[in-house]
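User: Predict the complex.
Assistant: Input components as received:
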Amino acid sequence: MIPVCRTEDLPEGGAVRIEIDATTPAIAVFRSEGVLYALDDRCSHQDASLSEGWVEGCQVECPLHAALFDLRTGRPSCLPARRPVRTHEVTEADGMIHVRPAARGTAVREDAYA
Amino acid sequence: MRTVTVVGASLAGLYAARALRGEGFDGRLVIVGAERHRPYDRPPLSKSFLTQRPPAAMELEDLRLCDQDEEDALAAEWHLGTRATALDTAARTVTVDDGRTVRPLRTDGVVIATGAVPRTLPGPPLAGVHVLRTYDDAHALRTALHDGTPRVVVIGGGFIGAEAASSCAALGLPVTVVEAAPLPLVPQLGPDLARICADLHAGHGVRLLCGTGVAGLRDDGTGRVRAVELADGRLLDADLVIVGIGVRPAADWLTGSGLPLDDGVVCDAGGMTSVPQVVAAGDVARCAGVRTEHWTGATEQPATAVRNLLAGSTVARHEAPPYFWSDQYGVRLQLAGRPGPRDAVRIVEGDPGERSFLAVCERDGRTTAAFAVDRPRPFMRLRRRLATGPPGDRGPSGTPAAPAGAPGAASWPYCSAASGRRCAGPTPGV
Protein backbone atom coordinates (compact mmCIF):
# COMPACT_ATOMS: atom_id res chain seq x y z
CA MET A 1 0.00 0.00 0.00
CA ILE A 2 1.20 3.48 -0.76
CA PRO A 3 0.46 6.37 1.57
CA VAL A 4 -1.58 9.16 0.02
CA CYS A 5 -2.19 11.73 2.74
CA ARG A 6 -3.61 12.20 6.21
CA THR A 7 -7.36 11.89 6.62
CA GLU A 8 -7.80 15.61 7.27
CA ASP A 9 -5.93 16.48 4.07
CA LEU A 10 -8.69 15.00 1.94
CA PRO A 11 -11.95 16.69 2.92
CA GLU A 12 -15.38 15.95 1.55
CA GLY A 13 -15.58 16.77 -2.19
CA GLY A 14 -11.81 17.01 -2.43
CA ALA A 15 -9.20 15.19 -4.44
CA VAL A 16 -5.52 14.43 -4.08
CA ARG A 17 -3.17 13.51 -6.89
CA ILE A 18 -0.20 11.28 -6.19
CA GLU A 19 2.72 10.34 -8.33
CA ILE A 20 4.30 7.06 -7.40
CA ASP A 21 7.21 6.59 -9.76
CA ALA A 22 8.17 7.43 -13.29
CA THR A 23 6.54 4.34 -14.75
CA THR A 24 3.27 4.32 -12.82
CA PRO A 25 0.53 6.63 -14.06
CA ALA A 26 -0.49 9.20 -11.44
CA ILE A 27 -3.48 8.32 -9.28
CA ALA A 28 -6.26 10.62 -8.13
CA VAL A 29 -7.95 9.90 -4.80
CA PHE A 30 -11.38 11.42 -4.19
CA ARG A 31 -13.70 11.70 -1.22
CA SER A 32 -17.33 12.09 -2.16
CA GLU A 33 -20.32 11.64 0.15
CA GLY A 34 -18.01 10.12 2.69
CA VAL A 35 -16.60 7.44 0.39
CA LEU A 36 -13.03 7.25 -0.91
CA TYR A 37 -12.28 6.39 -4.53
CA ALA A 38 -9.03 6.08 -6.49
CA LEU A 39 -8.73 6.33 -10.28
CA ASP A 40 -6.00 6.92 -12.79
CA ASP A 41 -5.58 10.67 -12.75
CA ARG A 42 -5.28 11.17 -16.49
CA CYS A 43 -8.51 11.51 -18.41
CA SER A 44 -8.79 8.76 -21.02
CA HIS A 45 -9.84 11.32 -23.63
CA GLN A 46 -7.04 13.86 -23.58
CA ASP A 47 -4.34 15.19 -21.34
CA ALA A 48 -6.18 16.47 -18.29
CA SER A 49 -6.01 15.71 -14.58
CA LEU A 50 -9.19 14.25 -13.08
CA SER A 51 -8.05 15.30 -9.60
CA GLU A 52 -8.78 18.83 -10.77
CA GLY A 53 -12.27 17.87 -11.87
CA TRP A 54 -15.69 18.47 -10.40
CA VAL A 55 -16.85 15.77 -8.00
CA GLU A 56 -20.53 15.15 -7.50
CA GLY A 57 -22.05 12.01 -6.03
CA CYS A 58 -20.21 9.07 -7.54
CA GLN A 59 -18.99 10.96 -10.57
CA VAL A 60 -16.09 13.20 -11.49
CA GLU A 61 -16.25 15.62 -14.39
CA CYS A 62 -13.03 16.19 -16.33
CA PRO A 63 -11.96 19.84 -16.05
CA LEU A 64 -11.04 20.10 -19.72
CA HIS A 65 -13.96 18.71 -21.73
CA ALA A 66 -16.53 17.72 -19.13
CA ALA A 67 -16.32 13.98 -19.71
CA LEU A 68 -17.89 12.19 -16.72
CA PHE A 69 -16.38 9.14 -15.06
CA ASP A 70 -18.00 6.86 -12.52
CA LEU A 71 -15.78 6.97 -9.44
CA ARG A 72 -16.74 3.38 -8.58
CA THR A 73 -15.89 1.74 -11.89
CA GLY A 74 -13.83 4.25 -13.87
CA ARG A 75 -16.28 4.01 -16.73
CA PRO A 76 -17.10 7.10 -18.72
CA SER A 77 -20.78 7.97 -18.60
CA CYS A 78 -20.76 10.58 -21.30
CA LEU A 79 -18.74 11.76 -24.24
CA PRO A 80 -16.15 12.80 -25.20
CA ALA A 81 -14.40 10.09 -23.18
CA ARG A 82 -14.94 6.65 -24.61
CA ARG A 83 -12.45 4.52 -22.67
CA PRO A 84 -12.56 3.85 -18.95
CA VAL A 85 -9.79 4.73 -16.54
CA ARG A 86 -8.39 2.18 -14.09
CA THR A 87 -9.61 2.05 -10.52
CA HIS A 88 -7.41 1.31 -7.51
CA GLU A 89 -8.00 -0.02 -4.04
CA VAL A 90 -8.06 2.70 -1.40
CA THR A 91 -8.19 2.37 2.39
CA GLU A 92 -8.34 4.68 5.38
CA ALA A 93 -7.05 3.66 8.80
CA ASP A 94 -5.47 5.35 11.78
CA GLY A 95 -5.81 8.78 10.24
CA MET A 96 -4.02 7.83 7.00
CA ILE A 97 -5.23 7.11 3.48
CA HIS A 98 -3.44 4.50 1.37
CA VAL A 99 -3.85 3.19 -2.16
CA ARG A 100 -2.84 -0.10 -3.71
CA PRO A 101 -2.17 0.63 -7.38
CA ALA A 102 -3.70 -1.89 -9.74
CA ALA A 103 -1.01 -4.13 -11.19
CA ARG A 104 0.78 -2.53 -14.08
CA GLY A 105 -0.64 -3.46 -17.39
CA THR A 106 -3.93 -4.31 -15.75
CA ALA A 107 -6.31 -3.76 -18.56
CA VAL A 108 -9.35 -1.81 -17.74
CA ARG A 109 -12.17 -4.30 -17.77
CA GLU A 110 -13.30 -5.02 -21.28
CA ASP A 111 -16.91 -4.84 -20.23
CA ALA A 112 -16.20 -1.30 -19.17
CA TYR A 113 -16.47 -0.34 -22.81
CA ALA A 114 -20.09 0.62 -22.72
CA MET B 1 -38.69 13.16 -41.49
CA ARG B 2 -37.44 10.02 -43.19
CA THR B 3 -33.98 11.15 -44.27
CA VAL B 4 -31.67 13.61 -42.55
CA THR B 5 -28.40 14.61 -44.18
CA VAL B 6 -25.60 15.89 -42.01
CA VAL B 7 -23.19 17.87 -44.16
CA GLY B 8 -19.83 17.82 -42.43
CA ALA B 9 -18.15 14.81 -40.83
CA SER B 10 -15.97 16.43 -38.21
CA LEU B 11 -16.80 17.20 -34.59
CA ALA B 12 -20.10 19.06 -35.08
CA GLY B 13 -21.28 16.65 -37.77
CA LEU B 14 -20.58 13.60 -35.63
CA TYR B 15 -22.25 15.16 -32.60
CA ALA B 16 -25.25 15.99 -34.78
CA ALA B 17 -25.46 12.36 -35.89
CA ARG B 18 -25.22 11.19 -32.27
CA ALA B 19 -27.87 13.70 -31.24
CA LEU B 20 -30.22 12.54 -34.00
CA ARG B 21 -30.03 8.96 -32.82
CA GLY B 22 -30.14 10.14 -29.21
CA GLU B 23 -33.39 11.97 -29.93
CA GLY B 24 -34.83 8.78 -31.35
CA PHE B 25 -34.55 9.58 -35.05
CA ASP B 26 -34.68 6.14 -36.63
CA GLY B 27 -34.81 7.14 -40.28
CA ARG B 28 -32.08 7.22 -42.88
CA LEU B 29 -29.04 9.16 -41.66
CA VAL B 30 -26.63 10.38 -44.33
CA ILE B 31 -23.28 11.94 -43.42
CA VAL B 32 -21.31 13.83 -46.07
CA GLY B 33 -17.67 14.72 -45.35
CA ALA B 34 -15.22 16.53 -47.61
CA GLU B 35 -12.23 14.84 -45.99
CA ARG B 36 -11.61 11.20 -46.70
CA HIS B 37 -11.10 10.47 -42.99
CA ARG B 38 -13.60 9.27 -40.45
CA PRO B 39 -14.31 11.87 -37.74
CA TYR B 40 -11.24 12.67 -35.69
CA ASP B 41 -10.34 15.11 -32.95
CA ARG B 42 -8.40 18.17 -34.02
CA PRO B 43 -7.15 19.90 -30.84
CA PRO B 44 -4.02 17.73 -30.52
CA LEU B 45 -2.98 18.56 -34.09
CA SER B 46 -1.36 21.85 -33.10
CA LYS B 47 0.06 20.43 -29.87
CA SER B 48 1.42 16.98 -29.08
CA PHE B 49 0.77 15.70 -32.58
CA LEU B 50 3.44 18.06 -33.95
CA THR B 51 6.07 17.44 -31.32
CA GLN B 52 6.08 13.66 -31.29
CA ARG B 53 8.63 12.13 -33.58
CA PRO B 54 7.58 9.40 -35.96
CA PRO B 55 7.41 6.43 -35.78
CA ALA B 56 6.36 6.72 -32.11
CA ALA B 57 4.07 9.59 -32.97
CA MET B 58 0.34 9.96 -32.72
CA GLU B 59 -1.52 8.84 -35.80
CA LEU B 60 -5.00 9.18 -37.16
CA GLU B 61 -6.18 6.12 -35.27
CA ASP B 62 -5.28 7.80 -31.96
CA LEU B 63 -7.47 10.76 -32.83
CA ARG B 64 -10.61 8.92 -33.89
CA LEU B 65 -13.78 10.24 -32.30
CA CYS B 66 -15.86 7.19 -32.96
CA ASP B 67 -14.97 3.50 -32.84
CA GLN B 68 -16.36 0.77 -35.02
CA ASP B 69 -19.01 -0.26 -32.51
CA GLU B 70 -20.42 3.21 -32.30
CA GLU B 71 -20.25 3.65 -36.04
CA ASP B 72 -22.24 0.47 -36.46
CA ALA B 73 -24.76 1.70 -33.94
CA LEU B 74 -25.15 5.03 -35.68
CA ALA B 75 -26.19 3.12 -38.80
CA ALA B 76 -25.34 6.04 -41.03
CA GLU B 77 -24.62 6.17 -44.72
CA TRP B 78 -21.17 7.75 -44.96
CA HIS B 79 -20.11 9.73 -48.01
CA LEU B 80 -16.50 10.63 -47.25
CA GLY B 81 -14.07 12.37 -49.58
CA THR B 82 -17.25 13.94 -50.88
CA ARG B 83 -17.93 17.63 -51.05
CA ALA B 84 -21.38 19.17 -50.85
CA THR B 85 -21.65 21.70 -53.65
CA ALA B 86 -25.24 22.93 -53.44
CA LEU B 87 -28.40 22.89 -51.38
CA ASP B 88 -31.81 23.16 -53.00
CA THR B 89 -34.38 23.64 -50.27
CA ALA B 90 -37.34 23.56 -52.68
CA ALA B 91 -36.29 20.29 -54.33
CA ARG B 92 -34.97 19.03 -50.98
CA THR B 93 -31.62 17.94 -52.32
CA VAL B 94 -27.99 18.27 -51.33
CA THR B 95 -25.73 18.04 -54.36
CA VAL B 96 -22.50 16.17 -53.70
CA ASP B 97 -19.29 15.73 -55.66
CA ASP B 98 -16.99 12.82 -54.87
CA GLY B 99 -14.47 13.79 -57.53
CA ARG B 100 -15.92 11.38 -60.06
CA THR B 101 -19.59 12.16 -60.15
CA VAL B 102 -21.83 15.00 -59.11
CA ARG B 103 -25.28 13.98 -57.98
CA PRO B 104 -28.17 15.18 -55.86
CA LEU B 105 -29.08 13.37 -52.64
CA ARG B 106 -32.75 13.56 -51.69
CA THR B 107 -33.31 14.54 -48.08
CA ASP B 108 -36.03 15.76 -45.76
CA GLY B 109 -33.81 17.57 -43.27
CA VAL B 110 -30.32 19.00 -43.34
CA VAL B 111 -27.77 19.73 -40.62
CA ILE B 112 -25.10 22.10 -41.94
CA ALA B 113 -21.86 21.38 -40.10
CA THR B 114 -19.22 22.13 -42.71
CA GLY B 115 -16.99 24.01 -40.29
CA ALA B 116 -14.46 26.51 -41.51
CA VAL B 117 -11.42 26.66 -43.75
CA PRO B 118 -8.15 28.45 -43.04
CA ARG B 119 -7.59 31.82 -44.61
CA THR B 120 -4.59 31.88 -46.90
CA LEU B 121 -2.28 34.57 -48.21
CA PRO B 122 -2.81 35.87 -51.73
CA GLY B 123 -0.39 34.71 -54.39
CA PRO B 124 0.58 31.38 -55.88
CA PRO B 125 1.07 28.44 -53.52
CA LEU B 126 4.68 27.83 -52.48
CA ALA B 127 6.31 24.72 -51.06
CA GLY B 128 7.14 25.14 -47.40
CA VAL B 129 4.01 27.16 -46.66
CA HIS B 130 1.53 25.41 -44.37
CA VAL B 131 -1.87 25.93 -42.83
CA LEU B 132 -3.07 23.91 -39.86
CA ARG B 133 -6.62 22.71 -39.68
CA THR B 134 -7.01 19.13 -40.82
CA TYR B 135 -5.17 15.90 -40.16
CA ASP B 136 -3.61 16.08 -43.62
CA ASP B 137 -2.42 19.64 -42.90
CA ALA B 138 -0.90 18.58 -39.59
CA HIS B 139 0.71 15.47 -41.03
CA ALA B 140 2.39 17.48 -43.80
CA LEU B 141 3.54 20.09 -41.28
CA ARG B 142 4.92 17.49 -38.89
CA THR B 143 6.85 15.80 -41.65
CA ALA B 144 8.42 19.13 -42.61
CA LEU B 145 9.19 20.17 -39.03
CA HIS B 146 11.06 16.95 -38.38
CA ASP B 147 13.16 17.27 -41.54
CA GLY B 148 16.34 19.03 -40.44
CA THR B 149 16.16 22.28 -38.49
CA PRO B 150 13.91 24.59 -40.48
CA ARG B 151 13.72 28.26 -39.57
CA VAL B 152 10.03 28.80 -38.91
CA VAL B 153 7.96 31.94 -39.36
CA VAL B 154 4.42 31.80 -38.01
CA ILE B 155 2.12 34.37 -39.55
CA GLY B 156 -0.62 35.26 -37.07
CA GLY B 157 -0.36 35.33 -33.29
CA GLY B 158 -3.79 33.87 -32.50
CA PHE B 159 -4.31 30.59 -30.69
CA ILE B 160 -3.39 28.34 -33.60
CA GLY B 161 -0.31 30.43 -34.33
CA ALA B 162 0.71 30.46 -30.68
CA GLU B 163 0.25 26.72 -30.25
CA ALA B 164 2.13 25.98 -33.45
CA ALA B 165 4.95 28.31 -32.38
CA SER B 166 5.04 26.64 -28.98
CA SER B 167 5.29 23.20 -30.60
CA CYS B 168 8.08 24.37 -32.92
CA ALA B 169 9.95 25.86 -29.96
CA ALA B 170 9.56 22.58 -28.09
CA LEU B 171 11.27 20.89 -31.05
CA GLY B 172 14.17 23.32 -30.66
CA LEU B 173 13.47 25.18 -33.89
CA PRO B 174 14.08 28.91 -34.30
CA VAL B 175 10.65 30.56 -34.46
CA THR B 176 9.38 34.05 -35.23
CA VAL B 177 5.70 34.96 -34.87
CA VAL B 178 4.43 37.88 -36.95
CA GLU B 179 1.26 39.63 -35.83
CA ALA B 180 -0.33 42.52 -37.73
CA ALA B 181 -2.11 43.96 -34.68
CA PRO B 182 -0.21 45.82 -31.95
CA LEU B 183 -0.83 42.77 -29.73
CA PRO B 184 -2.31 39.35 -30.54
CA LEU B 185 -5.61 38.11 -29.10
CA VAL B 186 -6.90 41.50 -27.93
CA PRO B 187 -10.35 40.93 -29.48
CA GLN B 188 -10.63 37.55 -27.75
CA LEU B 189 -9.08 38.38 -24.36
CA GLY B 190 -8.97 42.13 -23.90
CA PRO B 191 -5.65 44.00 -23.64
CA ASP B 192 -4.55 42.96 -20.14
CA LEU B 193 -4.86 39.20 -20.60
CA ALA B 194 -3.59 39.43 -24.17
CA ARG B 195 -0.37 40.99 -22.86
CA ILE B 196 0.15 38.09 -20.48
CA CYS B 197 -0.29 35.59 -23.32
CA ALA B 198 2.03 37.54 -25.60
CA ASP B 199 4.74 37.40 -22.95
CA LEU B 200 4.65 33.59 -23.05
CA HIS B 201 6.38 33.67 -26.45
CA ALA B 202 9.43 35.61 -25.33
CA GLY B 203 9.66 33.49 -22.20
CA HIS B 204 10.37 30.50 -24.45
CA GLY B 205 12.77 32.04 -26.91
CA VAL B 206 10.20 32.77 -29.59
CA ARG B 207 10.45 36.18 -31.24
CA LEU B 208 7.11 38.00 -31.50
CA LEU B 209 6.91 40.86 -34.01
CA CYS B 210 3.74 42.88 -33.60
CA GLY B 211 2.20 45.77 -35.46
CA THR B 212 3.44 44.79 -38.88
CA GLY B 213 1.58 42.98 -41.59
CA VAL B 214 3.02 40.66 -44.20
CA ALA B 215 3.67 42.18 -47.62
CA GLY B 216 4.29 38.84 -49.27
CA LEU B 217 6.30 35.66 -49.47
CA ARG B 218 9.58 35.41 -51.39
CA ASP B 219 10.38 32.23 -53.23
CA ASP B 220 13.77 30.78 -53.99
CA GLY B 221 13.18 30.48 -57.71
CA THR B 222 12.12 26.83 -57.52
CA GLY B 223 8.70 27.40 -56.03
CA ARG B 224 9.80 27.04 -52.41
CA VAL B 225 9.47 29.77 -49.80
CA ARG B 226 12.69 31.50 -48.83
CA ALA B 227 11.59 34.53 -46.81
CA VAL B 228 8.65 36.48 -45.48
CA GLU B 229 8.57 40.13 -46.45
CA LEU B 230 6.96 42.38 -43.88
CA ALA B 231 4.93 45.49 -44.63
CA ASP B 232 7.67 47.63 -43.12
CA GLY B 233 10.20 46.22 -45.58
CA ARG B 234 11.98 43.77 -43.29
CA LEU B 235 12.77 40.33 -44.67
CA LEU B 236 12.58 37.29 -42.40
CA ASP B 237 14.46 34.25 -43.66
CA ALA B 238 12.20 31.24 -43.54
CA ASP B 239 12.46 27.60 -44.52
CA LEU B 240 8.96 26.92 -43.31
CA VAL B 241 5.98 29.24 -42.92
CA ILE B 242 2.84 28.49 -40.94
CA VAL B 243 -0.09 30.68 -41.88
CA GLY B 244 -2.46 31.08 -38.94
CA ILE B 245 -4.51 34.10 -39.90
CA GLY B 246 -7.92 32.79 -39.00
CA VAL B 247 -10.61 30.85 -40.78
CA ARG B 248 -13.66 31.61 -42.82
CA PRO B 249 -16.85 29.60 -42.53
CA ALA B 250 -17.17 26.87 -45.15
CA ALA B 251 -20.44 28.22 -46.51
CA ASP B 252 -19.56 29.01 -50.14
CA TRP B 253 -21.46 25.93 -51.28
CA LEU B 254 -24.66 27.49 -49.95
CA THR B 255 -24.48 30.50 -52.23
CA GLY B 256 -27.65 30.42 -54.28
CA SER B 257 -29.48 28.21 -51.80
CA GLY B 258 -31.55 31.12 -50.57
CA LEU B 259 -30.26 30.68 -47.02
CA PRO B 260 -29.08 33.98 -45.58
CA LEU B 261 -25.28 33.99 -45.30
CA ASP B 262 -23.30 36.59 -43.40
CA ASP B 263 -19.98 35.38 -42.04
CA GLY B 264 -21.53 31.93 -41.79
CA VAL B 265 -25.02 30.51 -41.98
CA VAL B 266 -27.38 32.94 -40.31
CA CYS B 267 -29.48 31.17 -37.70
CA ASP B 268 -31.21 31.82 -34.41
CA ALA B 269 -29.95 30.83 -30.98
CA GLY B 270 -31.27 27.34 -31.63
CA GLY B 271 -29.37 26.82 -34.88
CA MET B 272 -32.52 27.19 -37.01
CA THR B 273 -32.02 28.81 -40.39
CA SER B 274 -34.76 30.59 -42.32
CA VAL B 275 -35.87 27.16 -43.58
CA PRO B 276 -37.33 24.95 -40.83
CA GLN B 277 -35.88 21.78 -42.35
CA VAL B 278 -32.35 23.18 -42.28
CA VAL B 279 -30.26 23.80 -39.16
CA ALA B 280 -26.61 24.68 -38.68
CA ALA B 281 -24.07 24.03 -35.93
CA GLY B 282 -20.39 24.48 -35.20
CA ASP B 283 -17.91 26.87 -36.80
CA VAL B 284 -20.09 27.48 -39.86
CA ALA B 285 -23.12 28.66 -37.86
CA ARG B 286 -23.71 32.27 -36.96
CA CYS B 287 -26.18 31.79 -34.12
CA ALA B 288 -28.05 34.87 -32.90
CA GLY B 289 -25.34 37.06 -34.40
CA VAL B 290 -22.39 35.20 -32.90
CA ARG B 291 -20.13 32.69 -34.60
CA THR B 292 -17.77 30.71 -32.39
CA GLU B 293 -14.87 28.57 -33.48
CA HIS B 294 -14.44 26.45 -30.40
CA TRP B 295 -14.34 22.72 -29.88
CA THR B 296 -16.90 22.92 -27.08
CA GLY B 297 -19.40 24.88 -29.18
CA ALA B 298 -19.11 22.24 -31.88
CA THR B 299 -20.03 19.56 -29.34
CA GLU B 300 -22.88 21.50 -27.72
CA GLN B 301 -24.68 23.25 -30.56
CA PRO B 302 -25.61 20.14 -32.57
CA ALA B 303 -27.81 18.74 -29.80
CA THR B 304 -29.81 21.95 -29.72
CA ALA B 305 -30.00 22.25 -33.50
CA VAL B 306 -31.12 18.65 -33.89
CA ARG B 307 -33.89 19.00 -31.31
CA ASN B 308 -35.20 22.01 -33.20
CA LEU B 309 -34.89 20.28 -36.56
CA LEU B 310 -36.94 17.34 -35.36
CA ALA B 311 -39.47 19.65 -33.67
CA GLY B 312 -39.81 21.82 -36.78
CA SER B 313 -39.38 25.03 -34.79
CA THR B 314 -37.11 26.55 -32.17
CA VAL B 315 -37.93 24.71 -28.97
CA ALA B 316 -34.39 24.86 -27.55
CA ARG B 317 -31.72 27.53 -27.50
CA HIS B 318 -28.00 27.12 -26.96
CA GLU B 319 -27.04 29.51 -24.21
CA ALA B 320 -23.94 28.06 -22.57
CA PRO B 321 -21.16 30.63 -22.41
CA PRO B 322 -18.34 29.98 -24.84
CA TYR B 323 -15.43 27.99 -23.46
CA PHE B 324 -12.08 27.12 -24.91
CA TRP B 325 -8.65 26.10 -23.82
CA SER B 326 -5.20 26.32 -25.29
CA ASP B 327 -2.03 24.47 -24.35
CA GLN B 328 1.12 26.39 -25.12
CA TYR B 329 4.58 26.71 -23.66
CA GLY B 330 3.82 24.17 -20.99
CA VAL B 331 0.82 25.97 -19.54
CA ARG B 332 -2.92 25.52 -20.01
CA LEU B 333 -5.00 28.60 -20.77
CA GLN B 334 -8.76 28.41 -20.27
CA LEU B 335 -11.37 31.03 -21.02
CA ALA B 336 -15.11 30.90 -20.40
CA GLY B 337 -17.53 33.69 -21.19
CA ARG B 338 -17.29 36.78 -23.34
CA PRO B 339 -14.80 39.35 -22.09
CA GLY B 340 -15.48 42.86 -23.38
CA PRO B 341 -12.82 45.36 -24.44
CA ARG B 342 -13.47 47.64 -21.47
CA ASP B 343 -14.08 45.01 -18.80
CA ALA B 344 -12.10 45.33 -15.61
CA VAL B 345 -9.76 42.37 -15.09
CA ARG B 346 -9.32 41.21 -11.52
CA ILE B 347 -6.82 38.55 -10.48
CA VAL B 348 -8.70 36.26 -8.10
CA GLU B 349 -5.82 34.01 -7.17
CA GLY B 350 -2.26 33.31 -8.19
CA ASP B 351 0.18 35.57 -9.94
CA PRO B 352 0.47 36.33 -13.68
CA GLY B 353 4.21 36.76 -13.18
CA GLU B 354 4.41 33.11 -12.12
CA ARG B 355 2.21 31.95 -15.00
CA SER B 356 -0.38 30.46 -12.73
CA PHE B 357 -3.44 32.52 -11.93
CA LEU B 358 -7.18 32.87 -12.16
CA ALA B 359 -8.75 36.12 -13.34
CA VAL B 360 -12.29 37.35 -13.82
CA CYS B 361 -13.50 40.02 -16.21
CA GLU B 362 -16.18 42.29 -14.80
CA ARG B 363 -18.57 44.84 -16.24
CA ASP B 364 -21.25 46.75 -14.34
CA GLY B 365 -20.81 44.50 -11.34
CA ARG B 366 -21.30 41.32 -13.38
CA THR B 367 -18.71 38.66 -14.15
CA THR B 368 -18.49 38.39 -17.93
CA ALA B 369 -15.67 35.88 -18.23
CA ALA B 370 -13.19 33.74 -16.34
CA PHE B 371 -9.64 33.18 -17.52
CA ALA B 372 -7.07 30.86 -16.03
CA VAL B 373 -3.49 29.91 -16.60
CA ASP B 374 -2.78 26.52 -15.04
CA ARG B 375 -5.61 26.76 -12.49
CA PRO B 376 -8.08 24.19 -13.79
CA ARG B 377 -9.95 23.42 -10.59
CA PRO B 378 -10.95 26.91 -9.46
CA PHE B 379 -11.51 27.83 -13.10
CA MET B 380 -14.01 25.02 -13.39
CA ARG B 381 -15.95 26.32 -10.39
CA LEU B 382 -16.13 29.77 -11.96
CA ARG B 383 -17.09 28.37 -15.32
CA ARG B 384 -19.99 26.52 -13.79
CA ARG B 385 -21.10 29.65 -12.00
CA LEU B 386 -20.99 31.58 -15.29
CA ALA B 387 -23.16 28.90 -16.87
CA THR B 388 -25.75 28.95 -14.12
CA GLY B 389 -25.84 32.64 -13.23
CA PRO B 390 -25.08 34.21 -9.85
CA PRO B 391 -25.73 32.17 -6.66
CA GLY B 392 -29.08 33.88 -6.10
CA ASP B 393 -30.35 32.43 -9.38
CA ARG B 394 -29.76 28.85 -8.38
CA GLY B 395 -32.40 26.35 -7.64
CA PRO B 396 -33.77 25.77 -4.15
CA SER B 397 -31.13 23.19 -3.32
CA GLY B 398 -28.39 25.68 -4.08
CA THR B 399 -26.78 23.07 -6.28
CA PRO B 400 -25.53 24.52 -9.50
CA ALA B 401 -26.96 22.90 -12.57
CA ALA B 402 -24.60 21.37 -15.06
CA PRO B 403 -23.56 23.83 -17.75
CA ALA B 404 -25.95 23.68 -20.64
CA GLY B 405 -24.68 21.27 -23.19
CA ALA B 406 -22.29 19.61 -20.79
CA PRO B 407 -23.15 16.23 -19.29
CA GLY B 408 -26.45 14.95 -20.43
CA ALA B 409 -27.02 17.39 -23.26
CA ALA B 410 -26.09 14.86 -25.87
CA SER B 411 -28.38 12.02 -25.08
CA TRP B 412 -26.87 9.45 -27.44
CA PRO B 413 -26.65 6.79 -24.78
CA TYR B 414 -24.06 4.68 -26.53
CA CYS B 415 -21.43 5.56 -24.00
CA SER B 416 -23.68 5.61 -20.96
CA ALA B 417 -22.61 3.60 -17.96
CA ALA B 418 -26.13 2.35 -17.55
CA SER B 419 -26.51 1.17 -21.08
CA GLY B 420 -23.84 -1.49 -21.14
CA ARG B 421 -23.22 -2.57 -24.68
CA ARG B 422 -26.71 -1.60 -25.68
CA CYS B 423 -27.01 -0.10 -29.10
CA ALA B 424 -29.51 2.69 -29.19
CA GLY B 425 -29.39 3.19 -32.90
CA PRO B 426 -31.57 1.35 -35.35
CA THR B 427 -30.42 -1.74 -37.11
CA PRO B 428 -28.92 -1.16 -40.54
CA GLY B 429 -31.42 -1.04 -43.30
CA VAL B 430 -34.25 0.44 -41.27
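DSSP finds ten helices and 25 strands in chain B.
Let me know if you want any component modeled separately.
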